[in-house]
Amino acid sequence: MRIVAVCGLGYGTSVILKNNIEKALVALDYEGATVEAVGVAEARQIGALANIVMTTEELVPILGGINAEIIPIRHVIDIDEIKKALAKALL
Amino acid sequence: MTLVRVGVSAETWQEAIAAAGGLLVEAGHVRVEYIDAMVRVVEELGPYIVLIDGFALAHAAPGEIVLENSISLVVLENPVDFGSGKMVTCVFAMAAKEHESHIESLGRLAELLSDEQTRNTLLNARNSAQIEQLLSGVLGE
Questions:
Q1: Alpha-carbon distance A78 to nearest alpha carbon in chain B (angstroms)
Q2: Domain annotation for chain B: domains and CATH numbers
Q3: Model-level pTM?
Q4: ipTM above 0.90, yes or no
Q5: Which residues lie closer than 8 Å to B141 by C-beta, 6 or more apart?
Q6: d(CA A80, nearest CA chain B) in Å
């Protein structure tokens, strides 16, 4: 399971999102997933190789062409929101 | 510490980012061009830098216009709309010299902001002394 966290540049918002995805995976007892933080440009290149792409709502239209499950997140700080979204996609 | 300022007035999100970025410039942590670079990110990609209601993390790409890894904070007198009705009172400005060099402090910031009580303290801060201790280990020197 390869999860990619995407933000504009790949080093601010997506790093926070990646941290919180990892915490959510631990809380869900889900092992064997890798999580990366990348920017929009890199996401266009590697997004299709991922199983799940998580990003903020605003960036979903920009990533529309990627052939992976795209999960929009409203608040990247909110671990509960991320946990619920991952539970729905993974379990 | 000069990287926190409370009671800052800003009419627009651009002014808010300029205020937060201005603290980094004054401290000698970024060149002044970094402010425009942070504004362009939001112009191009939208208000995705709003982490949770009330809080934005402005930043631009790492590079030569960054002199020190650093994070600053302005608490606005009145919230401003960052787009799509996303109202923001606390604006952090983050600068990193390299891609990986800031991840620890960013993690600590995320941890802080995940706590609702901490968020309320920041949103309602009346002076910088009140929040400096809260943010130690997150902001640059």
A1: 6
A2: 3-128 (3.40.930.10)
A3: 0.92
A4: no
A5: B1
A6: 10
